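Example 5.3 — NAD-dependent epimerase/dehydratase
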Amino acid sequence: MENIVVTGGAGFIGSHVVNELIEKNMGPIVIDNLSSGKIENLDPRALFYQQDITDLEMMERVFMLHKPRYVFHLAAQISVSQSVKDPIEDARINILGTLNLLNLSVKYGVEKFIFSSTGGAIYGDDVSEIPTSEKEFPKPFSPYGIAKFSVENYLRFYSEQYGLKYVALRYANVYGERQDPHGEAGVVAIFSKRMLANDEVIIFGDGENVRDYVYAGDVAHANVLAMEKVENEVINIGTGIGTSVNELFALLKEITGYQKEPVYADPRPGDLRKSILKWDKAKELMGWEPTVKLEDGLVKTVEFFRTEMGASE
Ligand SMILES: O=c1ccn([C@@H]2O[C@H](COP(=O)(O)OP(=O)(O)O[C@H]3O[C@H](CO)[C@H](O)[C@H](O)[C@H]3O)[C@@H](O)[C@H]2O)c(=O)[nH]1
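Solution (predicted structure tokens):
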């Protein structure tokens, strides 16, 4: 069996990638420091190292031992607002941690490096077209987006200099089972959990900010297709469909049976007004398309939180 490393495999999106690989009988080796990932997220059939990507010595041991053919890199400092508060820490993990993995990938002969980048945080607000394609030159507005774009540039360098093949996937707003609703996580997880607990739901601003919500299972599938079908490309992964926070609230209200009205609060500083991604390139190059409609994905997500909350009562 080919060895495949998934960093961040105990995290939200990473655990979906792990599941998809296991379904395909490609049991992966997971590296995760459990800073935001959880052991419960992880399929027990995956081989697990609780290690930090910034620890070069430990990373080298894993690479030396397993000589992976493919690396899916999803471990990251995931909070945009945290990156604004502490750009150095964000860069330490998201840039320097990634460079550790890139150096080791070259040294130990990794065939392809599949990187989780961002669509929402990379293009910024001032775009020439919405839905936005990969042709748009990135103008990231946060240290988080700057770090992701830096890594994309390093990937190009490593491929030209050392022949390391790569794919960078720029995700829209990913939602689904196992998203962590605490702190800075995505709006779908936050709203779902609050509605199920009958807590207040807060909408920042007027609720007309628009996002492109893509289901985590579809994102996981895009990762596996990227491994199999393309090289040295940057590819958007989204649905091309925009949904406002007010619309999202209404959909989740219906699904959960929530009775309260939302509480409108001040706009969140730095929030984009509108972000929607074109996904034609993903279709063209690797035959990917979003398969789970938002309504259906929300039902699955709410079901997950309902079960999880029931289990912890
Ligand atoms: O309690 C909340 C939480 C969010 N929102 C609104 O919901 C929309 C989406 O916010 P998210 O925090 O879910 O996501 P962002 O669009 O800010 O996206 C950022 O946060 C995401 C977290 O899932 C990803 O990291 C993504 O890459 C990054 O750009 C925004 O208009 C936000 O103001 C609310 O109204 N109430």
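Remark. The chain has a mean pLDDT of 96.
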